[in-house]
Amino acid sequence: VLGWVQNVRLLPSRMLMKAKLDSGAKSNAIHAENIEQFMKGGKEMVRFTILKEHDDPDSEAIEMERPLVREVNIKIRNTEERESRLAVRLEFCLAGEIYNTVFTLANRSNFNYPLLLGRDFLKNKILVDSSQSFTHRVECPRR
Length: 143
What we know:
The protein is an all-beta fold. It contains 1 helix and 11 strands, in the order E-E-E-E-E-E-E-E-E-E-H-E. The strands form 2 sheets. It has a 6-stranded mixed barrel. Strands 1-11 form a two-stranded parallel ribbon. It is globular, with a radius of gyration of 15 Å. The longest helix has 4 residues. A hairpin with a 2-residue loop joins strand 8 and strand 9.
């Protein structure tokens, strides 16, 4: 059982980020900037920048390259519009466990949290106590 907001560590950089656990959202999303799709060794790849503080352009940042998993159309909340987003697989640590799952890359600068974990990830693994936040320390197992 976790709170509705938790700290996670994005791997392999171990960057500490805040995540909203949202059973109202279907999929996962992470704030990314400078998103660039390209080919490398015959594979479709995505290069992007992750900011520790998604609403601070001077924040600690890391550049990542990941294989493209798919392109998804996301319904924009409170509108009938849809937005095309690239999806990549990312590894992170949450409450002492390491996970590897798919995230869409999005501009989340207008949201409170840079990382969103939706019900596709939460189901069968995590119960969310909406009255709690930061219930577990981020202690990642050593490999």
